[in-house]
């Protein structure tokens, strides 16, 4: 098995924690390279969720009984675990949402709808995921604000000179992804935070492709908001994290109303609950929160520096192998240190969907389409691309298998 060992990361040992990786289709073992869409879950995460349901299932914050107390403690401590993982200052700054998309909507509705108006600007980038692009576009339409886009360079980086021109005193919010889910580019989010703050604007960082793959410190970035999805970092679906600076979360209106997010209600009036519960209306994502905390424990055991180095090496290996073929177009920076562990590409003369389907015949799972970045694909001048995205359990052998499957597509369409 190629690249079994990346520094402290023993890939072969870790793969044993993911029984799904042993699945075979027509006698071929699955090669799972669709981690940008969602990652597989180690036994530790599945067990933590099953343990909650089997041994202490109860609603939280509502019962005096023992089961509810145990569930409440586990759920609250999950916030501490996740907050610490991204450098937030405790559970008050860590709201559990459904996913990155909901975190984006939470801030857009709770802050944007109330704070934006005609003459205000929201600055996005050409590489934004629809989660941010569509959300801010719609909030801008509702409020009369304008949306501006920082362009990308031919090499797939953000044009930082253009960013410095576009972010002005009219800017109220800069929303940017940390790592592009199509180009792989790692964006200079701390520099963008400085630019935003120089103009008294806030910055929202979409970390959906960053938190799973590299150490993230929201305070070092000086982010005002930072969002990510549990299912892309070994956790279950149905949970995401929204970091928000405490004074901002305290000052904002709630996103949704109902039980658990209130302190005192009368027929005339209401006061809000403490952070972060003010933003978690109704029965929250209890099992998912416990599962996400187990995923964070697992990642910390592996070590995020080791995960980042492993991803860089896999991306570097893939870029070198792809460069052997003239008929493969790869998007994004060529230096693996400037990118996360994913590679979007096209094979001349073969539609990305056909390519993914042929990969499937070889039990290689990749994604094909626009990866929720249609405007970026317009900039790239293609309707779709194929994407291989790696994680801590992938090997260079699997990248070779991907290349072999691409070769059979080549033969088929020759
Ligand atoms: C960069 C980026 N942002 C946001 C999202 C949306 O994540 P979710 O669907 O979990 O809300 C994704 C998922 O593909 C992503 O890659």
- What percentage of the residues does DSSP assign to strands (E)? 15-25%
Spans of at least 5 consecutive residues with low confidence:
none
CATH topology of the largest domain: Aspartate Aminotransferase, domain 2
Helix content: 40-55%
Specify the number of helices.
14
- Measured on Cα atoms, how large is the radius of gyration? 22 Å
> What oligomeric state best describes the polypeptide chains here?
single chain
The second-level CATH architecture of the largest domain is: 3-Layer(aba) Sandwich
Distance separating the two termini:
31 Å
**Form type:** globular
Total individual domains: 2
Structural class: alpha/beta
Q: What strand line-up does the widest sheet have? A: 6-12-11-10-9-7-8
Largest sheet: 7 strands, mixed
CATH superfamily of the largest domain: Type I PLP-dependent aspartate aminotransferase-like (Major domain)
Integer average pLDDT: 96
DSSP strand count = 19
Bound molecules: pyridoxal-5'-phosphate
CATH class of the largest domain, named Alpha Beta
Can you describe this structure?
The protein folds into two domains: 5-32 and 303-413, Aspartate Aminotransferase, domain 1 (Alpha-Beta Complex), CATH 3.90.1150; 46-300, Aspartate Aminotransferase, domain 2 (3-Layer(aba) Sandwich), CATH 3.40.640.10. The protein is 40% helix and 17% strand. The chain has helices at 11-15, 43-55, 66-85, 100-115, 130-143, 160-166, 189-198, 218-221, 246-251, 286-302, 304-322, 352-361, 374-380, 396-413; strands spanning 5-6, 9-10, 24-25, 28-29, 31-32, 94-97, 121-125, 146-150, 171-177, 202-206, 225-229, 240-244, 262-265, 270-272, 328-330, 342-347, 364-365, 367-369, 385-389. The strands form six sheets. The protein has a seven-stranded mixed sheet with strand order 6-12-11-10-9-7-8, sandwiched between helices. It has a four-stranded antiparallel sheet with strand order 15-16-19-18, covered by helices on one side. A two-stranded antiparallel sheet has the order 1-2. Strand 10 (202-206), helix 8 and strand 11 (225-229) form a beta-alpha-beta unit. The mean pLDDT is 96. Bound molecules: pyridoxal-5'-phosphate. The site of pyridoxal-5'-phosphate has 13 residues, from helix 4.
């Amino acid at each position: 098995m190629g690249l079994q060992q990346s520094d402290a990361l023993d890939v072969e040992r870790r793969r044993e924690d993911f029984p799904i990786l042993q699945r075979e289709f027509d006698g071929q073992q699955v090669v799972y390279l669709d981690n940008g869409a969602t990652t597989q879950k180690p036994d530790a995460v599945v067990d933590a969720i099953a343990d909650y349901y089997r041994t202490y299932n109860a609603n939280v914050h509502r019962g005096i009984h023992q089961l509810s107390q145990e569930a409440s403690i586990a759920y609250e401590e999950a916030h501490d675990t996740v907050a610490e993982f991204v450098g937030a200052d405790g559970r008050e700054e860590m709201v559990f949402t459904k996913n990155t998309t909901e975190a984006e909507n939470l801030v857009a509705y709770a802050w944007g709808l109330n704070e934006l108006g005609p003459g205000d600007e929201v600055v996005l980038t050409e590489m934004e995921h629809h989660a941010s692009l569509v959300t801010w576009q719609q909030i801008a339409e509702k409020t009369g604000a304008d949306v501006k886009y920082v362009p990308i360079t031919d090499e797939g980086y953000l044009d930082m000179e253009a960013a410095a021109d576009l972010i002005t005193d009219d800017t109220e919010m800069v929303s940017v992804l940390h790592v592009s889910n199509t180009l792989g580019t790692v964006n200079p989010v701390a520099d963008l935070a400085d630019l935003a703050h120089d103009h008294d604007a806030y910055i929202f960082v979409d970390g959906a492709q960053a938190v799973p793959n590299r150490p993230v410190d929201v305070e070092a970035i000086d982010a005002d908001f930072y969002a990510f999805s549990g299912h892309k970092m070994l956790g279950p679906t149905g949970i995401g994290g929204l970091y928000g600076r405490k004074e901002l979360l305290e000052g904002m209106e709630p996103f949704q109303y109902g039980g658990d997010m209130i302190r005192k209600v009368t027929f005339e009036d209401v006061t809000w609950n403490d952070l972060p519960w003010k933003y978690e209306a109704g029965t929250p994502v209890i099992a998912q929160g416990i599962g996400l905390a187990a995923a964070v424990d697992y990642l910390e055991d592996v070590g995020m520096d080791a995960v980042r180095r492993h991803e860089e090496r896999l991306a570097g290996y893939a870029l070198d192998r792809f460069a052997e073929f003239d008929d493969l177009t790869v998007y994004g920076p060529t230096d693996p240190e400037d990118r996360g562990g994913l590679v979007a590409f096209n094979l001349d003369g073969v539609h990305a969907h056909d390519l993914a389907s042929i990969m499937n015949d070889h039990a290689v799972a990749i994604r094909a389409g626009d990866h929720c970045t249609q405007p970026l694909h317009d900039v790239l001048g293609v309707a779709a691309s194929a994407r291989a995205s790696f994680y801590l359990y992938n090997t260079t052998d699997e990248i070779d298998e991907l290349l072999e499957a691409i070769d059979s597509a080549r033969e088929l369409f020759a």
